[in-house]
């Protein structure tokens, strides 16, 4: 059986045009909009969330993007990324107050446990007003 030279090399690769967008290089505002759109979806599979996290390197983005990412993690109960939520609560305490509420409202025991653990570790570093608000949410 003989193959033509064309078939031996395998399928043709698509040449990248200059106007093709590299989706990994979205601006922060564009990522926020994308994540906001995804937050409106009723369900997202964990594989899609995993791909989203790695493709856009969400943990290297600014606090606004990471906050939306954490909201997606909480909403879709993406257990593999609960560490991302914990890290956000530790590093971005002012923005994390709202996230404590999200962790508690779903009535998911693992999420509530995560919220309480983070708060216990961080409450001494938090400002008094945030401590008061979070305490009311958690207990």
Tell me what you see in this structure.
This protein is mainly α and 139 residues long. The model has no long low-confidence stretch (mean pLDDT 88). Helix 4 (63-75) packs parallel to helix 6, helix 5 packs antiparallel against helix 6 (93-105) and helix 7 (109-122) runs antiparallel to helix 8 (128-138). The chain has eight helices and no strands. The longest helix is centred in the last third of the chain and has 14 residues, at 109-122. It is globular and about 40 Å long. Helix content is 63%, strand content 0%. It has helices spanning 5-8, 28-39, 46-55, 63-75, 82-91, 93-105, 109-122, 128-138. The termini are far apart.
Brief summary:
The chain has helices at 5-8, 28-39, 46-55, 63-75, 82-91, 93-105, 109-122, 128-138. The protein is mainly α.
What are the salient characteristics of this protein?
globular, mainly alpha, 63% helix, 139 residues
DSSP strand tally: 0
Hey, roughly how much beta strand do the residues contain?
under 5%
Helix content: 55-70%
Rg, nearest Å: 21 Å
Question: Span between N and C termini?
Answer: 75 Å
Q: What's the helix count?
A: 8
**Major sheet size, sense and barrel closure:** none
In the predicted model, the low-confidence regions spanning at least 5 consecutive residues are: none
Shape: globular
Helix and strand pattern: HHHHHHHH
Specify the structural class: mainly alpha
On the 0-100 scale, what is the average pLDDT? 88
Secondary-structure blueprint:
Blueprint: H1 5-8, H2 28-39, H3 46-55, H4 63-75, H5 82-91, H6 93-105, H7 109-122, H8 128-138
Helix pairs in contact: 2-4, 4-5, 4-6, 5-6, 5-7, 6-8, 7-8
